[in-house]
Design brief:
The chain is of the alpha/beta class and 284 residues long. The protein has one domain (29-278): Rossmann fold. Helix content is 40%, strand content 18%. The protein has eleven helices and eight strands. α8 (212-230) links the parallel β7 and β8 (235-241). The longest helix is centred in the C-terminal third of the chain and has 19 residues, at 212-230. The structure holds adenosine-5'-triphosphate (ATP) and magnesium ion. Residues 42, 45-51, 73, 76, 156, 207-208, 240, 242-243, 246-247, 250, 265 line the site of adenosine-5'-triphosphate. Magnesium ion binds at residues 49-50, 73, 78.
């Protein structure tokens, strides 16, 4: 199934609404980007973005990178839950005007990286005014200058928040698994992001596959759809195998690279961290 080109991949891409008047055109290429910001996105939900973002951050920190994890899933923030944290400060303080973005960060000493946590279950954060998102984006870009890498865990899909924050990233990693619906939704995400900014550095992460070969075939399906319909080919950042240690570590609320660093999925994310360091986008 994964070898089939998704049917009618253009159909899904109509989903995002047009910018309202007064809203900055997301991803128009006009907003300032942070070269070191990596957006972790997906079309379909539940494909492993949050787990991957946490693990990627941890992998980068373990090789000496100064790293920040920004929980930008404003509706269903759960980085803190996966890590078993109860942060004293989080993004809610920023949105209420009590804290600057810099003041909202907390240190995750066990992983040796910084975190800006979201507020779990706070649906009120999901639909922020565009001006607020612009300010957060600007502040994040400014803050990213003092980090080697900022990993931004986004909500699924293509809503305005996702589009505006993706526009700030130097690199966007689109996570998919081998399911046709996930591939089709990843295609839709890539289509909109590429059309908003033809220079965007978009790469693919295939997660939860039984074998690396299955991951490569999934990537090929997506790459061919992009080539045929968009005349654009996103690169493959890497393939992550399905691994029961992932669920076990989430249940224990301990990062996989702490609990079982030799697990297949942990090793696969370390390879993606190496890929990222080897393929930084050029400064513009
Ligand atoms: N490589 C993997 N092997 C096994 N299970 C995995 C793997 N990656 C993710 N999972 C499972 O997928 C579940 C969903 O992961 P996660 O919450 O990170 O997804 P998400 O894309 O962030 O979801 P959402 O779109 O709701 O934010 C996890 O609970 C985990 O059990
Ligand atoms: Mg998530």
């Amino acid at each position: 199934m994964a070898d089939q080109i998704p049917k009618a991949p253009g159909a899904k891409a109509a989903a995002p609404s047009a910018p309202r008047s007064g809203e900055a055109r997301p991803g128009s290429g006009k907003v300032e980007k942070g070269r070191s910001i990596i957006a972790v996105a997906s079309g379909k939900g539940g494909v492993g973005k949050t787990w991957f973002s946490v693990t990627l951050c941890h992998a980068l920190a373990r090789i000496g990178q100064k790293t920040l994890l920004f929980d930008a899933d404003l509706g269903l923030a759960n980085v803190d839950i996966q890590l078993g944290l109860m942060p004293e400060r989080d993004l809610a303080g920023v949105l209420q005007g009590r804290l600057s973005l810099g003041q909202a960060k907390v240190r995750y000493e066990d992983g040796k990286f910084d975190i800006i946590a979201g507020r779990s279950g706070s649906g009120s954060m999901a639909q922020l005014p565009a001006a607020r998102l612009m300010t957060i984006g600007q502040d994040l870009v400014r803050m990213s200058a003092s980090y080697d890498t900022v990993v931004m865990d986004l909500g699924a899909g293509l809503d305005r928040t996702v589009r505006m924050l993706t526009a700030r990233a130097g690199t966007t990693l689109v996570v998919t698994n081998a399911e046709p619906t996930s591939i089709t939704d990843a295609y839709a995400f890539i289509k909109v992001t590429h059309q908003n900014d033809p220079d965007a550095d978009i790469r693919v992460v295939v997660n939860s596959v039984d074998t690396k070969g299955e991951g490569h075939r999934t990537y090929e399906t997506l790459r061919k759809a992009c080539q045929n319909f968009l005349q654009f080919e996103p690169q493959l950042a890497g393939v992550i195998r399905r691994d029961r240690k992932v669920l076990e570590s989430i249940r224990q609320q301990v990062p996989i690279l702490t609990r079982t660093p030799t697990a297949d999925a942990a090793v696969d994310v370390e390879q993606i961290a190496d890929h990222i360091l080897d393929h930084r986008p050029p400064s513009r």
